[in-house]
From TrEMBL:
It is found in: Cell membrane. The lineage of its organism: Bacteria, Pseudomonadati, Pseudomonadota, Alphaproteobacteria, Hyphomicrobiales. GO terms for cellular component: plasma membrane. Involved in beta-(1-->2)glucan export. Transmembrane domains (TMD) form a pore in the inner membrane and the ATP-binding domain (NBD) is responsible for energy generation. It comes from Bradyrhizobium centrolobii. This is ABC transporter domain-containing protein. The chain holds residues 335 to 587 of 589 of the full protein.
C-alpha cells in the first residue's frame, strides 16, 4: 500500500493495565476510502485500541500516526482536529433536545475545544455558520424530516444516525464507530450500512468495532481480528470467514 494513502497507522501499540496486557503489539492501518472492521471476542482489546487512537488513553509503547505524524501524546481534541471523529458504544444524545440541537453541539466542536457553554460566546456569524453546518449534516444523513423532533423520540437506528451526523460536523477523514449496529433491527442495519458505504464512496474512511458478524461481513473492505490483545488475522471478509484461527477464537475450541 502506498504511504500516501495511509490515514491512520497503528504500530506495535501496547497497553498494559497493571498485570493485564489489554493490547499487545498490535499493528494495522486504515487507508483512504476504506471501511475497516476491528473484531474479536469480549476482552480482546478493541475498545482499548479505540481509546489509544482517539487519545483517551496513551500507549505503554508503540505508536499511533495520523497522516504520517505521530500523535501518541495528543489529547482527544487534537485528534479530532486532525480529522478523526468518533461515536460511542452507547448512545450519547440528549434525549429531550431536538436532533438539530444535538448535532449543533457537534458542529460547535469544529475548530473549537472549549466546553459547550462557550457556544454562548460565539459571535453571530460563527453561530450562523455552525447552525448551517448542523443542518447540512442532518440532511446529508437523510434525517431532514426529523430535524426538529426530540432525539429521544426517534428509533434507536435513527439515533445512531444522528450520532453519525454529529461526528460528521468536524469534517473528518476517518470516522470511528463503536458498535454502530448493536440493538438495531434488520432494516435499520441496512440503512446504516448504506450510509457508511455512501460516506466511503464520497472519500471518507470508517473504522468500526462491531460484534454483528453479518453486518461486518457485508460492509467491511478489510477486517482486523484481535484476541487476548493480539492481532490474530487481517484480511478481506472472505478470507477472515474461513480463517481457522479466527474460528477457533470465536468458538473457543
Ligand atoms: P474489548 O473492547 O475487546 O471487549 P477491552 O479493550 O475493553 O476489550 O479490554 C481488554 C482487556 O483489558 C480486558 O481484559 C479488560 O478487562 C482490560 N481492561 C480494559 N480497560 C481496563 C482498565 N481501565 N483497567 C484495567 N483493565 C482494563
Ligand atoms: Mg469493548
Amino acid at each position: 500500500p502506498g504511504q500516501g494513502n495511509v490515514l491512520l497507522q497503528v504500530e506495535k501499540a501496547r497497553k498494559q493495565f497493571g498485570g493485564v496486557i489489554a493490547v499487545n503489539n498490535v499493528s494495522f492501518d486504515v487507508q483512504a476510502r476504506e471501511i475497516v472492521a476491528l473484531i474479536g471476542p469480549n476482552g480482546a482489546g478493541k475498545s482499548t485500541t479505540f481509546n489509544l487512537i482517539t487519545g483517551v488513553l496513551s500507549a505503554t509503547s508503540g505508536s499511533i500516526s495520523v497522516l504520517g505524524r505521530k500523535v501518541d501524546k495528543a489529547p482527544p481534541q487534537e485528534i479530532v482536529k486532525l480529522g478523526i471523529s468518533r461515536t460511542f458504544q452507547h448512545v450519547k444524545l440528549v434525549p429531550d433536545m431536538t436532533v438539530f440541537e444535538n448535532v449543533a453541539i457537534g458542529a460547535h466542536l469544529r475548530g473549537h475545544s472549549g466546553p459547550v457553554s462557550s457556544m454562548l460566546r460565539l459571535d453571530r456569524a460563527d453561530e450562523a455558520k455552525l447552525l448551517a453546518e448542523a443542518a447540512r449534516q442532518i440532511e446529508r444523513v437523510g434525517l431532514a424530516d426529523q430535524m426538529h423532533q426530540l432525539a429521544g423520540s426517534l428509533s434507536l437506528g435513527q439515533q445512531r444516525i444522528v450520532e453519525i451526523a454529529r461526528a460528521l460536523c468536524v469534517d473528518p477523514m476517518l470516522l470511528l464507530l463503536d458498535e454502530p449496529a448493536a440493538g438495531l433491527r434488520h432494516m435499520e442495519k441496512q440503512r446504516l450500512a448504506a450510509l457508511l458505504r455512501e460516506l466511503r464512496d464520497g472519500g471518507m474512511s470508517v473504522l468500526l468495532v462491531e460484534h454483528d458478524m453479518g453486518f461486518v461481513m457485508n460492509l467491511a473492505d478489510r477486517i482486523v481480528v484481535l484476541d487476548f490483545g493480539t492481532k490474530i488475522a487481517e484480511g478481506t471478509p472472505a478470507t477472515i470467514k474461513t480463517n481457522p484461527e479466527v474460528i477457533k477464537a470465536y468458538l473457543g475450541v
